[in-house]
Specification:
It is a single chain. The strands form two sheets. Strands 3-1-2-6 form a four-stranded antiparallel β-sheet, with no helix packed on it. A four-stranded antiparallel β-sheet has the order 5-4-7-8, with no helix packed on it. The N terminus and C terminus are likely disordered. The protein has no helices and eight strands. It is mostly beta strands.
Length: 155
């Protein structure tokens, strides 16, 4: 018979489940606004019963990992705090670092606030919108208007 061993995992929890894509990076952001992109090829495949790999060196200053997303060049990243502060940046402006680093400040967080969520949106260029004119900010959308793909999936 095969002996099974019990794995004890400290107080970690799953924060994301993403599908890897070619030429994409893993964006990881902590509750205190530290973040980084890491090459997906730095993460090796593991079978069942393994503890996985460490992706972020957290401490009291960075806080725990709040989210992880697979991002591609050309995507916009929207970060949202628990108090409703929203920032946007291009994915490629967040530095690429190794797995065991603490990252850089990607969002300034006020005391008592924390990073809560993120959305990654692929912005389409004018050639891919079949000559449609860009919509002015705040203007209502027309029925069937499709300006962006969310999370890399077709809308």
């Amino acid at each position: 018979w095969k002996a099974q061993r019990m794995l004890t995992i400290r107080s970690e929890q799953l924060v994301a489940l993403e599908v890897a894509r070619k030429s994409a990076h893993l964006l990881t952001v902590t509750t205190m606004g530290y973040g980084k992109r890491a090459n997906l090829d730095k993460y090796t495949a593991h079978g069942r019963g393994t503890k996985g790999v460490i992706t972020f060196k957290t401490n009291d200053k960075t806080g725990p990992v709040a989210l992880a997303r697979v991002v591609s060049p050309g995507q916009e990243v929207f970060l949202v705090s628990a108090r409703g502060v929203v920032i946007t940046t291009k994915a490629e402006k967040i530095s690429i670092q190794g797995r065991l680093t603490k990252g850089v400040t990607v969002m300034k967080i006020d005391e008592g606030d924390a990073v809560a969520s993120a959305a990654c949106i692929e912005v389409l260029d004018a050639a891919s919108t079949d000559g449609a004119q860009p919509r002015k900010p705040g203007a209502p959308r027309k029925r069937g208007e499709d300006e962006a793909k969310v999370g890399g999936d077709a809308a």
